[in-house]
Amino acid sequence: MAVPTDDDSPTPGAQKWFSFFTISTDSVIYQSEVTRCYKSACWRTVNLSCRALRTQTRGNRIAVQVWIKPITAADGFDVDPVEPKPASTDGYTLLRRYVVDLFGLTLLKQAPENTDVPHSESNALLIALGTCWYLASPLPPDAVRERLPPKYLRAQAVSIRRMYTETSLSRLISLCTSLEQDTRWDRLKGEDVWRSEHRARLERTRARVSFLKLKLAAQRTRTDQERARVDKQREQLLEKQRVMERRYADLDERIAALNDRKDTFADTEHKLKEVLLARDMRQAVLVLELYSVYHVKPITEDLCSIMGIELPNGTFTDRDDDAIATALGYVSHLVLMISKYLQLPLRYPIKLLGSRSSITDDIAFDRSDRPRRFPLYPRVKDRSMFERGVFLLNKDVQQLLEHHGIGVRDALATLPNIRRLMLLLYDFTKQHNPDHGTPA
C-alpha cells in the first residue's frame, strides 16, 4: 500500500510518521516509523498483509493520519532520511487526516513507480494485490476514471468492482500472502535442492580431486622410480662409453702398431722376394750349368741323348745294356744334383753308383717289411725290377716338373721331360738376366 504525503511548510525538511486505523472501531492497523520528508510529494509503501489478518473490523472506511514535526537546528539538518525512528505524538502536529471509503477499487494497468504514481487527490490509497495495483478513492468510479489518464486504466468501467469489503480484502491479502509464501517456499526449496546438488557436486569434485591427487602421487612415485632407473642406466651407459673409448684408444694404438708392422712386413716381404728371386736365379743358373755339363740334346721330337748316348722312352729292347746303364747313370746323377740345387727331397731316393745306380721305394714295402730297391741297369735276373726302377726314376723327374708348375705329357719320356725343365729355367733366367747365355 502506498500513501502520498505532502509538505507545504517552508522549512528545508521535516520529520513525519503516519498510521492506519478503522473508523468504526478506532483500532490501529499500521503505524510507521519516523522518517524525513521534503516539500515535494513522496510515497510510502506499506505491507499490510500480516496485520490485516489480525484486524477484526468489518468497516468499509479507513482513516489515515499523518503527523509531522519541522526539523530545527537542535535536531540538525543532516538527519538521515532513510534511518527509521520510533513513532510518537510528542512534539508532532497532525498534518492531515484522510478518510478512504472502500466503495470501489480501480484496477490500474501495472504497478507504478514512486515517481509515476497516478492520483487525483491526496486522500487516496494504492493497494498492491499480486502484480497489479488498485486505487481506493471516496469518489465514484466514473469520477476516478475521468480524472485518470487512459494509459493507467486496464479494465473498462463496466468491469470495475463496485464494492470490496474488508473481509474480501483480507481474503485477497491472505491469498497473496499464501502465494508469496508458496513462492518463497518454492524458492527456498529450490535453494535447498540447489545446495544439495551443489554439495553433491562439491563432494564428487572433492572425491575426484582426492583420487586425482592419489593418482598423481602414484604417478610421481613411478616417475621418480623411472627417473632413478634411467639415471642408473645412464651411468651404466656412460661407464660403458668410457670403457669403449678406452678400448677404441687401445684399438687405435694397435692399429697404428699394426700399420707400422705392416709397413715393416711389406719391407721384409719385398726383401724376402728379392732374396727368393736371387735364390731362384742362383738355382736356375746352377741347374743350367748342369745342363751344359751333361749336354741333353734332342735327336728327334720325342727322342733325346745325354752325353752323346741315346736313351729310349720306356722300351729298352734291342739296345745295348751297357749304354742304357751308362745313360741311366748320367740321368740319375743329373736328377739327384737338380734336387739338391732346388732343395727338393726326392719321393724315391736314388743311390748313385754310376752305371750300377739304384732307386728305393720307401712307400711300398714287401712282406719282410724292408724298403724295396730297384736297379737302374738292365743286367738283372728279374727284368721287371729294372723296369720298375726306370718307372720310379721317371716319377722323380715328374716331381721336379710339377715343383715348377709344369705338366707331364708323357711319363715315360725321361730326357724330353728333363729338357723341358731346362728350357723353363732358361726362360726364367733370361727374363731376369738378359745377359745370360743360351743353352747348347
TrEMBL record:
Residues 234-261 form a coiled coil. GO terms for cellular component: endosome; lytic vacuole; protein-containing complex. GO terms for biological process: SNARE complex assembly. GO terms for molecular function: SNARE binding. Keywords: Coiled coil. Pfam families: ATG14. Transmembrane segments: none annotated. PANTHER family: UV RADIATION RESISTANCE-ASSOCIATED GENE PROTEIN. This is UV radiation resistance-associated gene protein. It comes from Salpingoeca rosetta (strain ATCC 50818 / BSB-021).
